Amino acid sequence: MNSDKKQFQQWEQELRDRELAVRLRELEAEINQQHPPHHAHLRNAAPHAKPLNVFKRFYRKLENIAKFIGIVVLMIIGIQIASWLAGTFIVIGIVWLAYKIFFEND
């Protein structure tokens, strides 16, 4: 009975060791997946990457400013056209009303 207990403890220890090894491999794979090796990143990096980033941000800001100015200009043009049309319709309405009142026979 004592040898059975020792054998059972030995199997239990082997199982714990295997589980620990598997967990360590999983953790290592997870770490390697999240953070690529530093030397691989440096090998593929361009020496002038940072100025391009600044240029891209500046270009995006410039693009957004141009869009905003374009929208403002289009709104002003639209308001001018709408006011011109409204003025035209008002004048046409007044002329029509004057014609109806003064020149049309009863």
Polypeptide structure, described:
By secondary structure, this protein is an all-alpha fold. The radius of gyration is 41 Å and the shape is rod-shaped. The protein is 90% helix and 0% strand. The chain has helices spanning 2-34, 38-44, 49-103. It starts with a helix and ends with a helix. The mean pLDDT is 86. The protein is built from three helices and no strands.
N- and C-termini, Cα separation: 130 Å
Number of helices: 3
Portion in beta strands: under 5%
What proportion of the residues is helical, as a percent range?
A: over 70%
Largest sheet composition: none
* Poorly predicted regions: none
Shape: rod-shaped
> What oligomeric arrangement do these chains adopt?
single chain
Would you list the SSEs in sequence order as H and E?
HHH
Rg, nearest Å? 41 Å
Structural class: mainly alpha
